[in-house]
Automatic annotation (TrEMBL):
GO cellular component, one term: ATP-binding cassette (ABC) transporter complex
SUPFAM superfamilies associated with the record: MOP-like, P-loop containing nucleoside triphosphate hydrolases
Name assigned to this protein: Fe3+/spermidine/putrescine ABC transporter ATP-binding protein
Biological process terms in GO annotation: quaternary ammonium group transport
Molecular function GO labels: ATP binding; ATP hydrolysis activity; transmembrane transporter activity
Listed Pfam families: ABC_tran, TOBE_2
Length: 350
């Protein structure tokens, strides 16, 4: 079904499994990110797709063909790595033309495709510059143009934006998505930046210790994280250790929610809720009393830490133009019951 498929793919390095039995089916034209902490196996997975690392087990398919043992140049995939080394002695246009020259594409067609590609990445006016005369973001776009000009079936990106400063990086995220949409190339990107993965991708694959633990659309990953790790790695999350008692789920003696039906009384549970699902109320109102411990202004919203019986709780307050409660002020916290999730197990609390 998938255009690019991984079936039971593993990579073992001297007894250590870098990638463990992963299955993934990427649709034609899809933009998929591999997201996870350092060492979880993202790059190894990408390199196996590129053909630079041979899987220990499993099968990789491309458009119905088994490419598991195929040489990288036969696969013809576009690859952009973090360092995206451009050829320093070649102009922007020559860098982009390189792959076409290698493939012996006739001059006229080559020039046409290079011009098309430079227009696409908004670099047409810099065609004759050398890499050293470009900004980081411009170099990055040359690298993307160079990878895309050969019209690869799949574009592989390994932390392509990590050398850029925060603002440029954000701009390039939009650029990358725009470029990918307009050419429709199936794209797999490795990143450890959750905001980047959520904003660009059609689907995100979260990797933990070599396994793919959730493969989902960004909003589903955020709303329904499959593991405790994902709930805190993707966005901010309050995780509160509690116990299911007679009256429901109690955290530090305060009943926060009714308990899940299948949990025995006395069982340790974890209650979790996103900061933006909590609402500030005047003291004495709401479901839980607290006192503002710290307050940060972040432009679009304020981030408050509220000390409560149940522990410190992060609260995101939208910026309405008015200041919310100050540090030291007693307040109440409220939420829609459905926003507070409860799961069995104390170990789940981060
Ligand atoms: P990062 O974000 O830090 O690049 P990653 O998620 O891309 O991390 P990988 O580079 O895929 O992780 O590495 C996964 C695991 O495999 C790590 O424990 C790493 O040390 C190990 N590993 C990777 N390449 C090799 C190799 N050539 N020989 C031995 N071990 C390796």
């Amino acid at each position: 079904m998938g255009f690019l498929t991984l079936e039971g793919v593993s990579k073992v390095y001297g007894g250590l499994a870098a990638v463990r039995d992963v299955d993934l089916a990427v649709a034609r034209g899809e933009f998929v990110s591999l997201l996870g902490p350092s060492g979880c196996g993202k790059t190894t997975t990408l390199q196996m797709i590129a053909g630079l690392v041979e899987p220990t087990a499993g099968r990789i398919g491309l458009d119905g063909r088994d490419i598991t043992r195929e040489k990288p140049n036969r696969r013809g995939l576009g690859v952009v790595f973090q360092s995206y080394a451009l050829f320093p002695h070649m102009t922007v246009a020559e860098n982009v033309a390189f792959g076409l020259e290698m493939r012996k594409v006739p001059r006229a067609e080559r020039d046409r495709r290079v011009a098309e590609m430079l227009a696409l990445v908004h670099l047409a006016n810099l065609a004759e510059r050398y890499p050293r005369q470009l900004s980081g973001g411009q170099r990055q776009r040359v690298a993307i143009a160079r990878a895309l000009v050969i019209a690869p079936p799949v574009l592989l990106l390994d932390e392509p934006l990590s050398n850029l400063d925060a603002k440029l990086r954000e701009e390039m995220q939009f650029e990358l998505r725009r470029i990918q949409r307009s050419v429709g190339t199936t794209t797999i990107m490795v990143t450890h930046d959750q905001a980047e993965a959520l904003s660009i991708s059609d689907r995100v694959v979260v990797m933990e210790a070599g396994r793919m633990t959730q493969i989902d659309a960004p909003y589903r990953l955020y709303e329904q994280p499959a593991t405790a790790f994902i709930s805190t790695f993707v966005g901010k999350m309050n995780r509160l250790a509690g116990v299911w008692g007679d009256g429901g789920v109690a955290v530090a003696g305060t009943v926060l929610a009714s308990a899940p039906a299948d949990v025995a009384a006395g069982t340790a549970v974890t209650a979790w809720i996103r900061p933006e699902k909590l609402h500030l109320r005047p003291m004495g109102e709401g479901r839980l009393a607290g006192r503002v411990a710290s307050r940060f202004f972040l432009g679009g919203h304020w981030l408050l830490t509220v000390g409560t019986e149940a522990g410190d709780i992060l609260v995101s307050v939208p910026n309405t133009g008015e200041e919310p409660a100050r540090e030291g002020e007693p307040i109440g916290l409220d939420w829609e019951p459905a926003s507070l999730r409860v799961e069995a197990g104390a170990g789940a609390a981060a």
